[in-house]
Amino acid sequence: MSAFEGAAVFVTGGSRGIGREIALRFARQGSARIAIGYLRNDDAAEQTAEELRGLGAEPVLVRGNVSSPKVAEQVAALGPLRVLVHNAATGVIRPALETEDKHFDWTMSANARALLGLARAAAPGMDAGSSIVAVSSLGAQRVLENYVLVGASKAALEAIVRYLAVELSPRGVRVNAVSGGVVDTEALDFFPNKEQMLEWARTRTPAGRMVSPADMADAVLFLCSPAAEMIRGQTLVVDGGFSLLA
Length: 246
Prior knowledge:
alpha/beta; single chain; 7 helices; seven-stranded parallel beta sheet
């Protein structure tokens, strides 16, 4: 029997891309109830919900800004969760000197502060053996073009993961992060140098191919499984060796 049989799961940004793959993977592992958070694309959310039903899971749609009190209230109302995955991300992709304070606040709120709000809403009801996983990116530790705001927010996200890991360990709740390399999803459409990034990832990744949403889902499921019991507050890099090269 799967470790996630009958489990309740919540995935932010779960209607598309990496989040969708993570949600579907938990459904295939026998999770009974899967909530997916999304901002405004009702069609994508409904389509993913239908796929979850087809896999035998009960979908729950959580609509709204992931950092808002409204979403936190919806998460608290979900009841005890076995898994919380904060995958949703946004941000303004611009050179540092072309950004504004409002861009910084928006990006930091959705990518980093939201994890605190979600933890406050969900962790009190999570049983020992439950997990929280945040999805980060290489820009948290390395400089990527036009990525200053998102990179800073992901660095903050990884710091919050470490603090939550220590604070929630006495409850038996594990907290970790997965940092992915370049993944070809709709999110890349916001990068002015998208094609350059894709070509760079294809030709420079030692593993011989780019990271896929399935690779990210594999890592998330591992960190949420009993096999990862002693992994806490860590950021697992899934990039096929891309970041090893000078």
